[in-house]
Amino acid sequence: MLDLLFGWRVLGRPVAAPPGIARDRLAALQAGFAQAMMDRRLIAEIEKANLDLAPSPGGEVAGLVAKLFSHSKDTIARAAAAVRNN
Fold first, then answer.
1. Rounded Cα gap, residues 67 and 15, in angstroms
2. pTM metric for this prediction
3. Can you say how many angstroms the Cα of residue 55 is from the centroid of all Cα atoms in its chain?
4. Angle at the Cα of 8 from the Cα atoms of 28 and 19, rounded to 5 degrees
5. What does the pLDDT look like over 31-51, one tens digit per residue?
6. Domain segments of the chain as ranges
7. Average pLDDT, stretch 41-69?
8. CA distances from 61 to 28, 47, 49 (A)
């Protein structure tokens, strides 16, 4: 239940592609994202706006999402009930 209640916070503001995307297209999107996250002008704008930048590799994010979606329906229901009751 803790994974479901707090695991999503690790994701922050994820950028996602639809399921079933072609591997070469996914690789191109991940490479472009990684390159953008190192762009000096983007970093300067983020710092100027006093925002945080902590990108995670696509494989790491995909692994966390898969872990969150791997829980049983019962566990998901219990986590949802815990959130509703607070």
1. 17
2. 0.68
3. 9
4. 40
5. 999 999 999 999 999 999 999
6. 2-84
7. 90
8. 16, 24, 25
